[in-house]
DNA sequence: TATGAATGAGGTTTCATTCAT
DNA sequence: AATGAATGAAACCTCATTCAT
C-alpha cells in the first residue's frame, strides 16, 4: 500500500517533468505532502495516533524521519491536517445537502449519503476523528469550533424536518449523534477492498436512517411497543 | 505530546470514589479494583488510552501511581479488563435479546436498547472500545475472538429477521456495523450528567433503528428515490 | 548501621537491668534473625543482591516483608551482615594459620584449607562477597578496611614464605589475588549437596596451590618452558 | 578512563584508514558499538550490572542515555554481548590450547595463560561473568549451553592430563572450578593501569597452577602432609 | 506482633524532534 | 535535499521502605 502510494507520487512527478521541462518544485512538494497525509491518516485511522510512530509512517513511505519535517511542522500538525480534511468533507456534504434537499429529512439523508460515500473514498485520512484529544490545544480549539458549527447545522436539519413534518418529534442532538457515530465508526471496519463499494455503503446507511430496519409490510410499531416493554437493564 | 489534552479525571474523582464505605478485606480489594477500572475506563473512553497517563488516573483516585500495581499487573491489563467488561455487557445484552425477542427485528432492537442502556450506565468503563490496537497482542487475540462471535450473533439476528420477514432484504454486515458504530460512539459524546438519561438514550436509539427518521405520514420512499439521485460524490 | 551494634548495646543494657532470667523471646529473635541471614545470604550468593528482592526472601521464609524489618534495619544492613560474617571467617582462618603454620607456605596453605572448608560449610552467607559495591557507603568503608587488613596479612604470609625459602620469589599481590579469587568463586558453583564434601574441596584446593597441577614424576618445568613459548595473545 | 576510551574511538574514526580517508558509516557504527560494550563491560565487571545505571555508562562515554539504544536493544542485550565476548575469548583460548598443547597439562596451562592475557587485555568487557543471573532467560539459556560446553572441554583437558600422566589423579571438576574461579575473579581487582601488565599476570597464573606455591627445593610434600593435619574447621 | 496496603525514589525505555553531514 | 545520529521529556514500572491495623 505504501509502495503503491510512493509509486504514484513518483510517476506523477515524472509526467510533470516530461510535459514541462521543469517540474515545479512546489508541485512536487505538494504531491509528497499529500502522500504523507494519506499514508499517515490511514495508519492513524487504523491503529490510532499514538500507536503509529513517525518511524512507522516514514518506513511505510520509504523516507526518513527528518524528511518528514520538511512537510510538516510536527506530528500534531499532521493530525490537524487530517481533521481539517475530514471537516472539509463534512462541510462539503452539508453544502451539498443544503443545495439539493427540499425537506429537513431530505437534507439529513443526502448529507449522510454524500458524507459516507466521500468518507469511504478518502477513508484513512479521516479515520482519526477519534483522536480528537491528541490534537494540540490551539488546533483543538479550531477543530472544536468547526465541529460545533457542523453539529449545529445538522441539528438544524433535524429541527427543520420536525417543523416541516418530514421527521417526527425527537431530540435532534441524539439523532445527530446517532448517525454521526455510525459514520465515524466506518473506518474502524470498512475496507474499500471488501465486497462492498463505498457507494453501496452510502446507500445502505441512508436507507437505514430513512426507514429503519423494520419491514414495510410488518406491523412493526405494534411489535415494538409490546416487545420492548420489559425493562432492559434488569441484568 | 505535552500539549495534548490530558485526562482531566481529577474532577470526577473528587467525589471520593476511592474512599467509600468500608466492608470486609477482600471485598475492599475488589471494590477498589473496580473503582480503578471505572475511573480508568472513563478516562480511556474520553481521552484515549495513550492520552491518559497512570499519573492522571492515580491523581483522580487520590492514590499514588505504584498503588495501582496492587490491582493490575500493568496498564494494558487494565485496558483488557475494560474491554472484557464491555464484551460482558454486550453478551449479556445479546442473551437478553435472545430470551425476549420473537422475530429477528425484535432481537436486534431489544439488543440495541439493552446495550445502550447498560452501556450508558457503566459508561466510562466501556468507552475504550476504540483503543483496540493498544491492547497487548495476547489480549488482542482474546478480544478479537469474542468480538467476532458477538458480531456473528448480531448478523444472525438480522438474517433471522430477513428470513422471518420482519426485516427487509439487506446486507447484515452493514446493518450491524451501522448500529454498533452508533453505539460504540456513545461514550465520545454522551454524559450521564447531561439533559438525557441513559434510558432515554436507549429508547431513542431503538426507535431510530426501528422506524428510521422519516415521519410515518410522509411518503418518504418516493422523496428518497427522487432526492438521492444526484451522485453525491461530485466534490 | 549496624543492627549488630545496636543489638549488642541493648543486650548489654538488658543484662544490666534485669540481671537474670532472660525470656526466650530474645533467643527466638536471634534464631529468626539468623534464619533470615542464612536464607538471604544464600539467595544473594546464588542470584546476586539485586536479583533477590525482599519479597523473594520473605516468601522463602514464609514471613511478610514488614516482618523482615523487625530483624534488620534495611536490606543493605543484611548485606553488611553477610560481609561481616565472611570477614569473620577469613580472619578466623588467618588466626588459625598463624597459630599452626611454621613457614610462610604453611600459613598460606593452612589458611586456604581452613577458609575453604568453613566457606563451604557456611556457603550462602558469604557468597555475596561479590556484591561489595552494593553496600551502603559507610558499610563499604568498614568492609574495605577489614579487607585491606586481611589482604595485607595474606601478602605478608607470602612474603614470609619467600623470605624463609618455602615459596619461590613472586609477586605476593598476584598470588594472593589468585587463590582468593578461586576461593571467592566457590559459592558460584559449589553445592554441599553435590558429590564432594567441603572438606574434600578444601583438601583439593590446598593441594593445587601447594604443588600445582603437574605430576611429580613429569619433568614439567621443561615442558612448560617449551610449550608456553608461543605468544599466547596472537589471536 | 572513559575520556581515554572516547578519545581512542574518535581518533580511530577521525584519522581513519590510509585507504579511505573516512571510515565508512558501518565501520563507525561498529566502532562506537564496541566502545559501548567495552565501557559498559568494564563498569559491569567492576560495580556489577545492577549497580551500573545506563546513566553511568552514558556519562562515561559522553553520550546521552537514549543514544545507547541505537546500538543495543536494551540493557540486557548489552550484558549478553559481554557474556558472548567472554565466551568467544574463552573458546579461542581453548582452541589455542588444543592447537599448541601436547599433553593434558600443556593444554590446561596454555589455556590459562592465553585466556588470562586476552582477558586482561579486553578486561572490562568480560568482567561481568559474575552477573549471569541478570541475563534475560533466553540469553541465559544460550550462555549456559556454551558454558557447559566450555567446562566440559576444560575437564577433558584435565582428564587427558591424568591419562597421559602429566597431571596426577584428581577430580577434574574441582580443578577446573579452581582455576576458572581465579580467572573470573581477575576483573574484580586487576587494573591494566596497575604495576603489572596482563602478560605478567598471565605468566604468574600459569606458573602458580603449574608448580604451585612451594619452593622447588623444599620438601613440600612432607611439610604439607604434616602441617595440614589438624582439622582446619575447628573454629 | 505481624501484615496488607501504600508510596517515593529511581531506573529503563520510547519517541518526537533536532543536529550535522 | 535528505538522512544517520543524537537527545530531552516523559511514560511505565519496580522495589525497598513505611503506615495503619
TrEMBL record, chains A, B, C, D:
Signal peptide: none annotated. It holds the Pfam family TetR_N. GO terms for molecular function: DNA-binding transcription factor activity; transcription cis-regulatory region binding. Keywords: DNA-binding, Repressor, Transcription, Transcription regulation. SUPFAM superfamilies: Homeodomain-like (SSF46689), Tetracyclin repressor-like, C-terminal domain (SSF48498). This is TetR/AcrR family transcriptional regulator. The keyword Transferase does not apply. Residues 53-72 bind DNA. InterPro entries: DNA-bd_HTH_TetR-type_CS, Homeodomain-like_sf, HTH-type_TetR-like_transc_reg, HTH_TetR, KstR2_TetR_C, Tet_transcr_reg_TetR-rel_C_sf. Residues 30-90 form the HTH tetR-type domain. It comes from Vineibacter terrae. Residues 1-26 are annotated as: Disordered. The keyword Chaperone does not apply.
Amino acid at each position: 500500500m505504501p509502495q503503491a502510494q510512493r509509486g504514484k507520487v513518483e510517476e506523477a512527478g515524472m509526467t510533470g517533468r516530461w510535459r514541462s521541462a521543469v517540474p515545479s518544485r512546489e508541485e512536487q512538494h505538494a504531491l509528497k505532502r499529500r502522500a504523507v497525509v494519506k499514508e499517515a491518516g490511514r495508519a492513524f485511522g487504523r491503529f490510532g495516533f499514538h500507536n503509529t510512530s513517525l518511524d512507522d509512517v516514514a518506513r511505510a513511505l520509504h523516507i526518513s524521519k527528518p524528511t518528514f519535517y520538511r512537510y510538516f511542522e510536527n506530528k500534531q500538525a499532521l493530525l490537524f491536517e487530517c481533521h481539517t480534511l475530514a471537516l472539509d468533507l463534512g462541510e462539503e456534504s452539508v453544502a451539498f445537502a443544503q443545495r439539493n434537499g427540499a425537506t429537513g429529512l431530505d437534507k439529513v439523508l443526502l448529507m449522510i449519503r454524500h458524507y459516507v460515500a466521500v468518507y469511504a473514498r478518502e477513508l484513512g485520512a479521516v479515520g482519526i476523528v477519534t483522536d480528537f484529544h491528541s490534537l494540540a490545544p490551539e488546533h483543538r480549539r479550531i477543530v472544536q469550533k468547526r465541529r460545533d458549527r457542523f453539529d449545529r447545522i445538522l441539528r438544524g436539519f433535524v429541527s427543520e424536518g420536525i417543523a416541516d413534518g418530514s421527521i417526527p418529534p425527537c431530540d435532534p442532538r441524539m439523532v445527530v449523534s446517532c448517525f454521526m457515530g455510525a459514520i465515524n465508526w466506518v473506518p474502524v471496519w470498512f475496507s474499500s477492498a471488501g465486497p462492498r463499494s463505498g457507494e453501496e455503503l452510502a446507500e445502505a446507511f441512508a436507507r437505514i436512517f430513512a426507514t429503519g430496519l423494520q419491514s414495510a409490510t410488518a406491523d412493526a410499531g405494534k411489535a415494538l411497543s409490546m416487545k420492548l416493554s420489559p425493562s432492559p437493564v434488569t441484568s
